[in-house]
Specification:
Number of strands: 26
Radius of gyration: 22 Å
Structural class: alpha+beta
Distance between the termini: 20 Å
Largest sheet: 7 strands, antiparallel
């Protein structure tokens, strides 16, 4: 999981920016639960803690803001510059960075945004002539009522001030992190003009071609697995039903402690018994790391709902290595395919069958240039 970055610039002078900051970050809550922003107002640069769990009528006036949402605070203030960044590269606001994306705001009213040559995405949008909007997710710009103008080019630096917008550098972006398409991004976002939903539909169709068992029903693991499940079901001609109900939205793959992850799984997936009782069930998930989610899901379907058979299919190759560029994921030692062969994994996860796309099948189906280092053991 990578961070969601946000920047807002008001060409109309000081206004209440808090609603825009809140909803812009809330639109990227799929990327984490920690939201922080810095706003430039009459008192200078001001830090804002944003509680994504509740709306509140706050009036915080300013001309510009930068923020991020992630599993931890990814914003900093150094002297008269506040910035929010993601990636392993060094960040110097106003200058290129080798492997980090950032949005930065200076005390004298200049906003910078930088997209590195590869991996991380930033989009540019506008709300009429009033605001410039920059975000990791195009959906965040649209949620704020803005129009997405384009994705930034790889290595492009934007400088925004009351005098206008200046772009320097940039070329066709390189490979994007594969997990942005598989897991991290919102379904209604685009990356470099390609819809995330379109890519996930292709992966779902490719995954369906691997399934050989006779089935009665297909269910998706909330929330990311649901769209894949719909396309697998369409391709196989098998009924697709909601098999689980979420109490809260949690990203269990982001948690390191096993107890926390099991708790998160239970909170995001309580089984609908009627959907699976006496059925041969295929469960669809987006990715496979430790297997804790699938094992818990299989137990719920079999023991609590009374499923006759439980099979699983995963839209990406199993993860085998931590990301060298900073994406949050468990250590290599937690990745089940680093220790067991597929037949043993299937038994260990209490499944009757397990399917996933190989790296070659994944690359053919995804149809865009992506980094796949996390799927390779190093």
């Amino acid at each position: 999981m990578s961070a969601g970055l946000l920047a807002i610039y008001s060409f109309a002078g000081e206004i209440n920016l808090y609603p825009l900051v809140y909803y812009g970050l809330r639109a990227m809550a799929n990327r984490g639960e920690v939201a922080v922003a810095y706003l430039l107002g009459h008192r200078g640069l001001e830090r804002l803690e944003v509680d994504l769990s509740r709306e509140e009528p706050r009036d915080v006036r300013g001309v510009a803001a930068v923020g991020c949402v992630y599993t931890e605070d990814c914003c900093r203030i150094e002297g008269d510059v506040a910035y929010c960044a993601f990636g392993r590269g060094e960040v110097k606001p106003g200058a290129p960075s080798e492997a980090a994306a950032y949005v930065a705001l200076t005390a004298d009213g200049v906003l910078y945004a930088y997209r590195p040559p590869k991996l991380w995405h930033l989009a540019v949008g506008a709300h009429g002539f009033d605001f410039a909007l920059i975000a990791t997710e195009t959906a965040a710009i649209e949620v704020l009522g803005g129009e997405v103008r384009r994705s930034m080019r790889g290595g492009e630096l934007l400088k925004i001030s009351r005098l206008g917008v200046v772009s320097t550098g940039g070329e066709q972006p390189g490979e994007v992190c594969a997990m942005e398409y598989v897991y991290s991004s919102r379904l209604d976002s685009e990356i470099d003009g390609v819809e995330v939903a379109e890519v996930r539909a292709r992966l779902g169709e490719a995954l369906a071609a691997k399934v050989k068992n006779s089935l009665d029903v297909i269910v998706g693991v909330p929330d990311t697995g649901l769209y894949y499940a719909a396309w697998v079901a369409e391709k196989l001609g098998v009924r697709h039903v909601p098999g689980f109900v979420s109490t809260v939205r949690k990203r269990s793959a982001l948690l390191d402690d096993v107890r926390d992850r099991v708790s998160a799984i239970q909170l995001k997936a309580n089984v609908v018994k009627h959907a699976a009782r006496g059925m041969r069930v295929l469960v669809i998930d987006d990715s496979l790391i430790s297997g804790l989610t699938l094992r818990h899901i299989a137990q719920l379907l079999r023991l609590r709902a009374g499923a006759k058979e439980v099979h699983a299919a995963v839209a990406a190759p199993p993860l085998r290595s931590q990301c060298p560029y900073g994406v949050k994921m468990p250590p290599d030692s937690h990745m089940v395919f680093n220790h067991l062969e597929q037949d043993t994994v299937t038994k260990a996860l209490e499944l009757d069958g397990l399917y996933y796309l190989t790296l070659e099948e994944f690359q053919r189906a995804i149809g865009v240039r992506v980094c796949t280092l996390c799927f390779k053991r190093r």
